[in-house]
Design a protein that fits this description.
Helix content is 49%, strand content 17%. It is globular, with a radius of gyration of 18 Å. The longest helix has 15 residues. Helix 1 crosses helix 9, helix 2 packs across helix 3 and helix 3 packs antiparallel against helix 4. It contains nine helices and eight strands. The protein has a domain of 101 residues: Rossmann fold. The chain has a five-stranded parallel beta sheet with strand order 2-3-1-4-8, with helices on both faces. By secondary structure, it is α/β, with parallel strands linked by helices.
């Protein structure tokens, strides 16, 4: 049986991480996040992680090939034998082309789910986010306010706004997304693989649509 690969696209703040965890569990697919991949390889000091750190310490972008090496190493594990859900990858057309080549060679069945959210709502979601310094749990001042102001519901740690959750930094992140990652929509639409979902609604409604589209494509 061929592998099932679900690719989740969407701008920063669209809710990819939250939906990917839930969707992967519902579909029985391993959730593969490139952010987690980097953290794991860096923390364990793997050969790939040490290479990546060299570029990061020099203030340079980690080359596509190194990111691909990390990804292919991860999806070769046993929990990905039936398939996996990609969150945060690919980010560029060259990455998508390299991934496509690999998936075609393995005869994988691919489905691309694209979360669409207006910029104003993305900004509200990002700038209202507060993260616990102790356990990393996230709250939102509007949508999931802490019971005690400034304190994490889980561990009582101090809640802070991460530097990349400021309006200025988010504006730059969104610009990079528009320039580098949004062209992936057209790339996958040309292959008839994309299903777009309105990500501005209640998270449960969004999840139901994502799950339905993923099952239809199976």
């Amino acid at each position: 049986m061929s592998q099932r690969v679900v690719i989740l696209l969407g701008p920063p703040g669209a809710g990819k991480g939250t939906q990917a965890t839930r969707l992967g569990a519902a579909l029985g697919l391993a959730h593969v996040s490139t952010g987690d991949l980097f953290r794991e390889n860096l923390s364990k000091g793997t050969a790939l992680g040490q290479k990546a750190r060299g570029y990061m310490d020099a203030g340079q972008l980690v080359p596509d090939q190194l990111v691909l090496d990390m990804l292919f190493d991860r999806v070769s594990k046993s929990d990905c034998s039936k398939g996996y859900l990609l969150d945060g990858f690919p980010r560029t057309i060259p990455q998508a082309e390299a991934l496509e080549k690999s998936l075609k060679a393995g005869g994988a069945q691919v489905c691309v789910l694209n979360l669409r959210v207006p910029d104003a709502l993305l900004l509200e979601r990002i700038t209202g986010r507060r993260t616990c310094k102790s356990c990393g749990n996230a709250h939102h001042l509007k949508y999931s306010a802490p019971k005690v102001e400034g304190r994490c519901d889980k561990c009582g740690g101090e809640l802070v706004q991460r530097s990349d959750d400021s309006a200025e930094v988010f504006g730059k992140r969104l610009q990079v997304y528009r320039e580098q990652t949004q062209p992936l929509e057209a790339f996958y639409e040309a292959r008839g693989l994309v299903r777009s979902v309105d990500g501005a609604r209640n998270p449960d409604q969004v999840f139901q649509d994502l799950q339905s589209f993923a099952k239809e494509a199976a």
